[in-house]
Amino acid sequence: MHVKINASKTRTIIDFRQSGFSELVVLGKYNYNKAEDILENHVHDRMIEICYSDKGSQWFAVEKQRYLVKGGDVFIHYPDELHGSGGYPEEKGCLYWFIIKVPKKTKAQSTTAFLINQLIDMNRRHFRGDGSIKKMLEEIFKVSRSEEESMQMLKIKINLLSQLFLLKLIELANKKTNDTDNERLSKIYELINNSITQNLTIERLANEVNLSESRFKNWFRDLSGFTPLDFVQRKRVEHAMDRIKQNPDINFKDLALELNFSSQQYFTTVLKKFTGKTPSEIKQSTLELNTPGEP
């Protein structure tokens, strides 16, 4: 199949426009082992972008509203929305994105167009996916690479796989969440946010929702997409970035101790892991941003 595939060790992108698809635009995947560059703000004109986080997490910003997308989540950027990563890097992990044109609603619209409009009408931007999402997207990658069938047959297969993918999204977006689990998870989030400078042990967090430590770790990961330690570290990094941006001259050693890191060196290691920058680099970026340009 003559589909342009821009491949590297960390990114794979299929451009369906090269083969004359009328609605499918791009299917991409990255698999990073470290934080990469910031995703700058951009707009997809009359296109929807569907993201699926297989592992890790990613910050997205849509019209100044921030969202944390974690492993197992589906996140949708609707047509003509200004979006990017909100100043955060593309993080360590694996994420898929599928960009599809959004045709106008008509009585004679195609199956793909009908499903896309159904998904948009549901207005569910952020919801949990499942393992079948990854399998479906990988199958589209696999079929796109095939050189054994005619272009017409491959187009039929890819369109059908894409429609099954959209049907699955609609099914998942319709699922009701467990209110009890959501309330308990919100309770844990609140405890972490209010105690970010304290020593947050698994025992303390598990006791908050009356679970054993081993059960709590599995329960928290299933619902949040993170291990408890990873989530706490992310919150501390988030807090550290806010503090540095508010006061670029803050003492990094004092900030590390305040956020309960064992040393300034470990603080720097964790910050670079999640942001791709050291505290000094974040400080420098803040100073450059706050420095007025020449008239």
TrEMBL record:
<protein>
    <submittedName>
        <fullName>AraC family transcriptional regulator</fullName>
    </submittedName>
</protein>
<feature type="domain" description="HTH araC/xylS-type">
    <location>
        <begin position="186"/>
        <end position="285"/>
    </location>
</feature>
<keyword id="KW-0804">Transcription</keyword>
<dbReference type="InterPro" id="IPR018062">
    <property type="entry name" value="HTH_AraC-typ_CS"/>
</dbReference>
<dbReference type="InterPro" id="IPR009057">
    <property type="entry name" value="Homeodomain-like_sf"/>
</dbReference>
<dbReference type="InterPro" id="IPR018060">
    <property type="entry name" value="HTH_AraC"/>
</dbReference>
<dbReference type="InterPro" id="IPR037923">
    <property type="entry name" value="HTH-like"/>
</dbReference>
<keyword id="KW-0805">Transcription regulation</keyword>
<dbReference type="Pfam" id="PF12833">
    <property type="entry name" value="HTH_18"/>
</dbReference>
<keyword id="KW-0238">DNA-binding</keyword>
<dbReference type="Pfam" id="PF02311">
    <property type="entry name" value="AraC_binding"/>
</dbReference>
<dbReference type="InterPro" id="IPR003313">
    <property type="entry name" value="AraC-bd"/>
</dbReference>
